[in-house]
Design goal:
Layout lengths: L7 E4 L1 H12 L5 H8 L3 H9 L7 H11 L3 H4 E4 L3
Antiparallel strand pairs: 1-2
Protein name: Helix-turn-helix domain-containing protein
Organism: Zhongshania guokunii
Pfam family, one: HTH_26
Length: about 80
């Protein structure tokens, strides 16, 4: 039987935030994202900074609406050793 390594699903929040800021030619803060999406600043900070942070589908949905993307654009599967 093959050994399964430590795999995580990473949320590409920082990357999408940078891309949106670049497209809109302005700085977008976590506070602004929090106000628009209803996701707490604490949750957004954990999503941005904690690899493999375990969140819920409501958060994923709100971020997809905010970034106008699909879950496949927001989530990345990372295989570990």
């Amino acid at each position: 039987m093959a050994r399964v390594g430590f795999n995580v699903i990473r949320i590409l929040f920082k990357q999408l935030l940078d891309e949106k800021s670049f497209r809109e030619k302005r700085r977008i803060t976590v506070g602004e994202v929090s106000e628009v999406t209803g996701i707490s600043r604490a949750t957004l900070t954990r999503v941005a900074n904690v690899p493999g942070y375990n969140t819920n589908t409501d958060t994923i949905n709100a971020l997809c609406v905010y970034f106008e993307c699909e879950p496949k654009d927001l989530l990345r599967y990372i295989e570990g050793d």
